Amino acid sequence: MTARIQVSHQAPDNDRPPPVRPALGAVAWKETVHLLSNLPLALVGFVYTVAMVATAGGLSVTAIGLPLLAAGLLVSRQLGRLERWRARALLGVRVEEPTALPGPRRAGGFFPWLWAGVKDPVAWRTVLYELVRLPWGVLTFAVALAGLLVLWPVLPYVTRWLTNVDRLMVRGLLSPSDELERRIAELESDRGVVVDTAAADLRRIERDLHDGAQARLVALAMGLGLAKEKLLEDPEGAAAMVDEAHGEVKLALQELRDLARGIHPAVLTDRGLDAALSSVASRCVVPVKVAVDLPERPAAAIEGIAYFTVSELLQNVSKHAGARGASVEVWRTAAGAAAGAAGGRASGVAGAAAGARLLIRVSDDGRGGADAVGGSGLAGLAERLRAVDGVFVVDSPEGEGTVVTAELPWRGRG
């Protein structure tokens, strides 16, 4: 099973219509059909859009106003998809589909998802397109019909001039948002994931402190208090209690070290990814080969994300893979070179942004079948990487092991 997160690319600039010919060829007939179909489709879109906006606006003071508007805008998105398909089929205009809106889970809950739907720029541009197209549809229908009846010799030229305006409208109003707008929308949707992850980490730290080191320190204090009372009456018993308390101190210190390593390991700060990942690998239940090839250290935040990504992946290997061995590879690559550099079955990674990238590949020879969708831990890792403009690819066919490739922006240390 392969899960990929990919970025959009600009549509090819090869959708210019062929030159106009006086004879009515296939292109001219397609353009004529497009002009004649403008009116009925424009009428349906205009009526729906006006009714949707008026109804949602009238109910905006009630609890169902915003959900109704968000649902109406989702339908408007589908009308835009229909128009893009019609433009491709009849006018040869190849307009890339906009990025899909994130679901409630990725958006951080129902209300962030609802707000993202209400302010969706793609849907609102489709609303504008449907409003301005009705008068244009009336004009093009009338001219095309008259051309079929009385302007036959010049019909190809008339249809070309009119459909060129249609082409401009489709490209201007139904094309995806520019790259910056798309990235803003994605980062806004991922912000909720980052906040939820941070809150979960804080709850985990609080729970570990309460149930682990704090409980041991309380028991230690009670034990030392009893030993103090017995010091004169029963020196041997007091010495045994002190010895037991000494063992509790060691256990509490070890738990605190483990907790600190889970927050940010000192070896990562002091010695970098190579030493930190080697330390993680040494705690894995299967042999792990670690290869880190970095000319310099990336930004501390990126280094930390890389460390915890590998740590969680190796925990999955220990608990679920049933593997005999695993490997960890970390290297730096230029933008756009990730697909070739990743190699093997994980070669679907693509550079998601300009600049150098940090590549991570964790593989094992276990049972495979890892699932990177739904509520799995791999899906959580994918969301965390998306929040920092990262890429996450899982390739895990049944019985053939698992290869996980992660890509992060480099963001070198200043």
Please characterize this protein's 3D structure:
With 414 residues, the protein is α+β, with helices and mostly antiparallel strands. The chain has three domains: 2-177, no CATH class; 193-263, Single alpha-helices involved in coiled-coils or other helix-helix interfaces (Up-down Bundle), CATH 1.20.5; 266-409, 2-Layer Sandwich (Heat Shock Protein 90). The chain is built from 13 helices and six strands. It has helices at residues 26-58, 65-91, 104-107, 110-118, 121-149, 155-174, 179-230, 235-263, 266-271, 273-282, 300-321, 338-342, 377-386; strands spanning 2-3, 288-293, 326-333, 357-364, 391-395, 402-409. A six-stranded mixed beta sheet has the order 1-5-6-4-3-2. The chain is elongated.
Compact description:
The protein has 414 residues and is of the alpha+beta class. 62% of the residues lie in helices and 9% in strands.
Which terms would index this structure?
single chain; 414 residues; alpha+beta; Single alpha-helices involved in coiled-coils or other helix-helix interfaces; Heat Shock Protein 90; 3 domains; six-stranded mixed beta sheet; 13 helices; 62% helix; elongated; disordered N terminus
Number of helices: 13
Along the chain, the helix and strand elements come as EHHHHHHHHHHEHEHEHEE
* Range of strand content: 5-15%
Number of domains: 3
The average pLDDT score comes to 76
Low-confidence stretches: 1-13, 336-354
Cα Rg: 31 Å
Strands in their spatial order, largest beta sheet: 1-5-6-4-3-2
Largest sheet properties: 6 strands, mixed
Shape: elongated
Helicity level = 55-70%
Q: How many DSSP-defined strands?
A: 6
Structural class: alpha+beta
How many angstroms separate the termini? 39 Å
